[in-house]
């Protein structure tokens, strides 16, 4: 017997708990390990953005939906706009600003809606790789972004090494 369930939890600073809950939901929903970790990292980035740049409160909802796992991240402040999702060239000297870029490269689909409750960022990841994609090499994120410490500034920045990752999952 298979039970479908929906995960719903408030956004808190306990990112470890949120990652664990999303991982549990994704595993139960049938995500393979690599896709599961992509989703967990993407949700972590989205929640961090709510805490650091948004209203610091909101709700995460995760569900399985027709071959996908979907995680909705609702920021009650509603500060996220479509302009924030525009993928441009990364500034290699910046100490921040990579979260949305990472999210869009890890997920199969990222949709932003403005609702009466705030900004709703929906992250969609396929449960299974399409048959046409089986066996194709998928470059891990670690080879795309490496975190470095600038000795002069003492700050961390991400280095975009190989261009945007072609996402095949």
Mean pLDDT equals 78
Helical residue percent band: 25-40%
Low-confidence stretches: 132-169
Shape summary: globular
The secondary structure category is: alpha+beta
Number of helices: 4
Q: In total, how many beta strands?
A: 7
The spatial strand order of the largest sheet comes to 1-2-3-5-4
Sheet with the most strands, sense and barrel status:
5 strands, antiparallel
How far do the termini sit from each other? 27 Å
Oligomeric state of this protein: single chain
Short account of what is shown:
With 169 residues, this protein is of the alpha+beta class. The chain has helices at 15-28, 33-53, 82-85, 99-106; strands at residues 7-10, 58-65, 68-75, 109-115, 118-126, 145-150, 155-160.
């Amino acid at each position: 017997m298979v039970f479908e369930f929906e995960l719903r939890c408030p956004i808190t600073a306990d990112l470890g708990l949120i990652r664990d809950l999303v991982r549990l939901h994704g595993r139960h929903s049938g995500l393979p390990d690599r896709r599961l970790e992509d989703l967990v990292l993407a949700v972590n980035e989205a929640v961090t953005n709510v805490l650091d740049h948004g209203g610091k409160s909101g709700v995460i909802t995760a569900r399985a939906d027709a071959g996908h796992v979907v995680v909705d991240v609702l920021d009650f402040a509603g500060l996220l706009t479509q302009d924030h999702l525009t993928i441009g060239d990364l500034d290699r000297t910046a100490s921040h600003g990579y979260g949305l870029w990472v999210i869009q490269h890890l997920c199969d689909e990222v949709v932003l809606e403005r609702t009466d409750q705030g900004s709703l960022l929906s992250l969609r990841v396929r449960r299974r790789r399409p048959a046409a994609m089986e066996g194709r090499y998928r470059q891990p994120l670690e080879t795309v972004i490496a975190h470095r410490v600038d000795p002069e500034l003492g700050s961390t920045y991400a280095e975009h090494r190989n261009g945007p990752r072609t996402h095949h999952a």
